[in-house]
Amino acid sequence: MKITKLETVCLSRMHEPERQWFTARYRTVKADCAIVVIHTDEGLQGIGEASAYGWPLLIREWVDWLAPELVGKEPSEPGIVLHPNGTNRAYDAAVAGIDTALWDLRGKLADKRVCELLTEKPLNRVRLYASSGCRYDWRNRPEQLIEEALQYIEMGYTAMKFRLGTEWSWNGVTVDRFLSLVRELSQEVSGRMELMLDGNCRLTSSAYGRERLGRRTKWSLARDTHTAASPCRAFSSADAS
Protein backbone atom coordinates (compact mmCIF):
# COMPACT_ATOMS: atom_id res chain seq x y z
CA MET A 1 0.00 0.00 0.00
CA LYS A 2 1.28 3.45 -0.96
CA ILE A 3 0.24 6.95 0.03
CA THR A 4 -1.09 8.77 -3.04
CA LYS A 5 -2.37 12.09 -1.76
CA LEU A 6 -2.77 14.35 1.29
CA GLU A 7 -5.53 16.89 1.59
CA THR A 8 -6.82 19.23 4.26
CA VAL A 9 -10.51 19.93 4.69
CA CYS A 10 -11.07 23.32 6.35
CA LEU A 11 -14.37 23.72 8.18
CA SER A 12 -15.93 26.66 10.00
CA ARG A 13 -19.26 27.46 11.64
CA MET A 14 -20.62 30.44 13.53
CA HIS A 15 -21.43 30.01 17.20
CA GLU A 16 -24.91 30.83 18.38
CA PRO A 17 -24.74 34.09 20.41
CA GLU A 18 -25.18 32.23 23.71
CA ARG A 19 -22.32 29.86 22.84
CA GLN A 20 -19.76 32.52 21.97
CA TRP A 21 -16.89 32.65 24.44
CA PHE A 22 -14.42 35.29 25.42
CA THR A 23 -11.32 35.65 27.51
CA ALA A 24 -8.68 38.32 27.90
CA ARG A 25 -9.34 40.89 25.13
CA TYR A 26 -11.03 38.84 22.44
CA ARG A 27 -14.34 37.15 21.71
CA THR A 28 -14.60 33.90 19.75
CA VAL A 29 -17.66 33.92 17.49
CA LYS A 30 -16.99 30.82 15.41
CA ALA A 31 -15.40 27.38 15.52
CA ASP A 32 -12.74 26.39 12.97
CA CYS A 33 -11.44 22.94 12.16
CA ALA A 34 -8.71 21.43 9.96
CA ILE A 35 -9.10 17.76 8.99
CA VAL A 36 -6.12 16.04 7.36
CA VAL A 37 -6.94 13.13 5.05
CA ILE A 38 -4.30 10.67 3.78
CA HIS A 39 -5.32 8.73 0.65
CA THR A 40 -3.80 5.42 -0.48
CA ASP A 41 -3.72 3.44 -3.71
CA GLU A 42 -5.96 0.79 -2.13
CA GLY A 43 -8.74 3.22 -1.30
CA LEU A 44 -8.13 3.26 2.44
CA GLN A 45 -8.01 6.67 4.13
CA GLY A 46 -6.47 7.94 7.32
CA ILE A 47 -8.24 10.90 8.96
CA GLY A 48 -6.83 13.19 11.63
CA GLU A 49 -7.70 16.56 13.12
CA ALA A 50 -5.06 19.28 13.42
CA SER A 51 -5.30 21.87 16.18
CA ALA A 52 -7.23 24.87 14.90
CA TYR A 53 -4.87 27.08 16.92
CA GLY A 54 -2.53 26.66 13.98
CA TRP A 55 -5.06 28.46 11.73
CA PRO A 56 -6.69 26.02 9.26
CA LEU A 57 -5.76 27.81 6.03
CA LEU A 58 -2.10 27.97 7.06
CA ILE A 59 -2.24 24.35 8.17
CA ARG A 60 -3.49 23.40 4.72
CA GLU A 61 -0.57 25.22 3.11
CA TRP A 62 1.91 23.34 5.29
CA VAL A 63 0.24 19.97 4.63
CA ASP A 64 0.50 20.65 0.87
CA TRP A 65 4.16 21.59 1.33
CA LEU A 66 4.92 18.45 3.35
CA ALA A 67 2.91 16.07 1.15
CA PRO A 68 5.76 15.23 -1.31
CA GLU A 69 7.73 13.74 1.61
CA LEU A 70 5.00 11.14 2.16
CA VAL A 71 3.50 10.44 -1.27
CA GLY A 72 4.72 7.09 -2.60
CA LYS A 73 5.69 5.84 0.88
CA GLU A 74 4.26 2.94 2.88
CA PRO A 75 2.04 4.35 5.68
CA SER A 76 3.47 1.80 8.13
CA GLU A 77 7.05 2.96 7.53
CA PRO A 78 8.45 4.43 10.78
CA GLY A 79 10.81 6.69 8.83
CA ILE A 80 8.02 8.76 7.30
CA VAL A 81 6.95 10.24 10.64
CA LEU A 82 7.46 14.01 10.64
CA HIS A 83 8.56 16.06 13.63
CA PRO A 84 7.45 19.47 14.94
CA ASN A 85 10.04 22.24 15.05
CA GLY A 86 8.57 24.21 17.96
CA THR A 87 8.97 27.54 16.17
CA ASN A 88 5.96 27.68 13.86
CA ARG A 89 2.50 26.91 15.22
CA ALA A 90 0.89 26.24 11.83
CA TYR A 91 3.71 23.89 10.82
CA ASP A 92 3.53 21.96 14.09
CA ALA A 93 -0.26 21.69 13.82
CA ALA A 94 0.08 20.34 10.28
CA VAL A 95 2.63 17.76 11.42
CA ALA A 96 0.32 16.70 14.27
CA GLY A 97 -2.64 16.40 11.92
CA ILE A 98 -0.63 14.21 9.55
CA ASP A 99 0.62 12.08 12.45
CA THR A 100 -2.94 11.58 13.72
CA ALA A 101 -4.11 10.59 10.23
CA LEU A 102 -1.23 8.10 9.96
CA TRP A 103 -2.24 6.49 13.26
CA ASP A 104 -5.83 6.25 12.03
CA LEU A 105 -4.65 4.60 8.83
CA ARG A 106 -2.41 2.15 10.69
CA GLY A 107 -5.30 1.21 12.96
CA LYS A 108 -7.48 0.45 9.95
CA LEU A 109 -4.72 -1.62 8.37
CA ALA A 110 -4.36 -3.67 11.56
CA ASP A 111 -8.14 -3.78 12.10
CA LYS A 112 -7.59 -2.43 15.61
CA ARG A 113 -8.40 0.66 17.60
CA VAL A 114 -5.43 3.02 17.71
CA CYS A 115 -5.24 2.61 21.49
CA GLU A 116 -4.64 -1.10 20.93
CA LEU A 117 -1.58 -0.24 18.85
CA LEU A 118 -0.19 1.81 21.72
CA THR A 119 -0.67 -0.61 24.60
CA GLU A 120 -1.72 -4.20 25.19
CA LYS A 121 -4.31 -3.18 27.79
CA PRO A 122 -6.04 0.02 26.69
CA LEU A 123 -8.59 1.68 28.92
CA ASN A 124 -12.24 1.24 28.05
CA ARG A 125 -13.20 4.50 29.75
CA VAL A 126 -11.46 7.88 29.89
CA ARG A 127 -12.34 10.59 32.38
CA LEU A 128 -13.47 13.82 30.75
CA TYR A 129 -13.20 17.33 32.13
CA ALA A 130 -15.08 20.47 31.18
CA SER A 131 -12.77 22.99 29.52
CA SER A 132 -14.51 26.29 30.05
CA GLY A 133 -14.53 29.32 32.33
CA CYS A 134 -14.50 31.42 29.15
CA ARG A 135 -17.68 33.41 29.60
CA TYR A 136 -17.31 35.31 32.86
CA ASP A 137 -16.85 39.07 32.67
CA TRP A 138 -15.21 40.94 35.56
CA ARG A 139 -17.42 43.95 34.84
CA ASN A 140 -20.67 42.02 34.68
CA ARG A 141 -21.37 39.11 37.05
CA PRO A 142 -18.04 37.27 37.39
CA GLU A 143 -19.95 34.81 39.61
CA GLN A 144 -21.18 33.33 36.30
CA LEU A 145 -18.06 31.14 36.58
CA ILE A 146 -19.51 29.48 39.68
CA GLU A 147 -22.92 29.00 38.06
CA GLU A 148 -21.25 27.39 35.06
CA ALA A 149 -19.29 24.97 37.26
CA LEU A 150 -22.48 23.91 39.06
CA GLN A 151 -24.13 23.27 35.70
CA TYR A 152 -21.25 20.98 34.72
CA ILE A 153 -21.65 19.07 37.97
CA GLU A 154 -25.31 18.50 37.10
CA MET A 155 -24.17 17.17 33.70
CA GLY A 156 -21.92 14.62 35.41
CA TYR A 157 -18.49 16.24 35.09
CA THR A 158 -16.11 15.76 38.01
CA ALA A 159 -13.40 18.20 36.88
CA MET A 160 -13.27 21.62 35.19
CA LYS A 161 -10.52 23.76 33.72
CA PHE A 162 -11.19 27.49 33.86
CA ARG A 163 -9.49 30.69 32.71
CA LEU A 164 -8.81 34.16 34.11
CA GLY A 165 -11.83 35.97 32.70
CA THR A 166 -11.78 39.21 30.74
CA GLU A 167 -8.76 41.54 30.73
CA TRP A 168 -7.98 42.44 34.36
CA SER A 169 -6.78 45.96 33.61
CA TRP A 170 -10.19 46.94 32.22
CA ASN A 171 -11.77 46.67 35.66
CA GLY A 172 -8.86 46.97 38.07
CA VAL A 173 -8.86 43.27 38.92
CA THR A 174 -6.08 42.25 41.31
CA VAL A 175 -4.60 38.89 42.26
CA ASP A 176 -6.46 39.11 45.57
CA ARG A 177 -9.80 39.69 43.86
CA PHE A 178 -9.20 36.76 41.53
CA LEU A 179 -8.22 34.48 44.43
CA SER A 180 -11.38 35.50 46.28
CA LEU A 181 -13.46 34.24 43.35
CA VAL A 182 -11.40 31.04 43.16
CA ARG A 183 -11.96 30.38 46.89
CA GLU A 184 -15.70 30.92 46.52
CA LEU A 185 -15.74 28.59 43.51
CA SER A 186 -13.77 25.97 45.43
CA GLN A 187 -16.17 26.11 48.37
CA GLU A 188 -19.21 25.75 46.10
CA VAL A 189 -17.90 22.63 44.33
CA SER A 190 -15.99 21.14 47.27
CA GLY A 191 -15.94 17.35 47.17
CA ARG A 192 -17.81 17.24 43.87
CA MET A 193 -15.39 18.66 41.31
CA GLU A 194 -11.66 19.09 40.85
CA LEU A 195 -10.58 22.49 39.55
CA MET A 196 -7.77 23.28 37.11
CA LEU A 197 -6.59 26.78 36.30
CA ASP A 198 -5.36 27.68 32.80
CA GLY A 199 -3.53 31.00 32.96
CA ASN A 200 -3.12 31.28 29.16
CA CYS A 201 0.30 32.89 29.84
CA ARG A 202 -1.45 36.04 31.05
CA LEU A 203 0.16 36.46 34.46
CA THR A 204 3.24 38.64 34.79
CA SER A 205 6.66 37.02 34.58
CA SER A 206 8.58 39.96 36.02
CA ALA A 207 10.76 39.23 39.02
CA TYR A 208 8.52 41.36 41.25
CA GLY A 209 5.37 39.89 39.76
CA ARG A 210 6.53 36.31 40.25
CA GLU A 211 7.45 36.97 43.87
CA ARG A 212 4.16 38.74 44.61
CA LEU A 213 2.09 36.14 42.80
CA GLY A 214 4.00 33.33 44.47
CA ARG A 215 3.47 34.70 48.00
CA ARG A 216 -0.24 35.22 47.52
CA THR A 217 -1.19 32.23 45.42
CA LYS A 218 1.14 29.36 46.28
CA TRP A 219 -0.90 28.18 49.21
CA SER A 220 -4.28 29.25 47.84
CA LEU A 221 -4.00 27.60 44.42
CA ALA A 222 -2.57 24.43 45.95
CA ARG A 223 -5.58 24.26 48.23
CA ASP A 224 -8.32 25.36 45.82
CA THR A 225 -7.20 23.93 42.47
CA HIS A 226 -5.85 20.59 41.31
CA THR A 227 -3.34 22.07 38.88
CA ALA A 228 -2.39 25.31 37.13
CA ALA A 229 -1.33 25.44 33.45
CA SER A 230 0.52 28.12 31.48
CA PRO A 231 0.39 30.83 34.16
CA CYS A 232 3.13 33.03 32.62
CA ARG A 233 4.76 33.55 29.27
CA ALA A 234 8.35 32.42 28.81
CA PHE A 235 10.76 34.27 31.14
CA SER A 236 13.84 36.02 29.83
CA SER A 237 16.61 37.97 31.51
CA ALA A 238 15.09 41.17 30.15
CA ASP A 239 12.05 40.65 32.40
CA ALA A 240 14.19 41.11 35.50
CA SER A 241 15.46 44.53 34.49
How does this structure look, described?
- With 241 residues, the protein is of the alpha/beta class.
- It has two domains: 3-118, Enolase-like, N-terminal domain (Enolase-like, domain 1), CATH 3.30.390.10; 130-240, Alpha-Beta Barrel (TIM Barrel).
- Helices cover 34% and strands 20% of the residues.
- The protein has helices at residues 56-66, 89-110, 114-118, 144-155, 175-189, 207-224; strands at 3-14, 21-23, 26-28, 30-40, 45-50, 130-131, 159-162, 194-198, 227-229.
- Helix 4 links the parallel strand 6 (130-131) and strand 7.
- Helix 1 crosses helix 2.
Question: Could you outline the blueprint of secondary structure elements for this entry?
Answer:
Blueprint: E1 3-14, E2 21-23, E3 26-28, E4 30-40, E5 45-50, H1 56-66, H2 89-110, H3 114-118, E6 130-131, H4 144-155, E7 159-162, H5 175-189, E8 194-198, H6 207-224, E9 227-229
Parallel strand pairs: 6-7, 7-8, 8-9
Antiparallel strand pairs: 1-4, 2-3, 4-5
Helix pairs in contact: 1-2, 4-5, 5-6
Give me the CATH superfamily of the largest domain: Enolase-like, N-terminal domain
- What's the architecture of the largest domain in CATH terms? 2-Layer Sandwich
**Separation of termini?**
58 Å
Shape: elongated
Cα Rg: 22 Å
Structural class: alpha/beta
Order of strands in the sheet with most strands: 6-7-8-9
The main sheet comes to:
4 strands, parallel
Annotation field: number of helices: 6
The CATH topology annotation of the largest domain reads as Enolase-like, domain 1
Helicity range: 25-40%
The count of DSSP E runs of length 2 or more, i.e. the number of strands, is: 9
Strand percentage? 15-25%
- What are the segments in which pLDDT stays under 50 over at least 5 consecutive residues? 207-212, 235-241
- Please give the CATH class of the largest domain: Alpha Beta
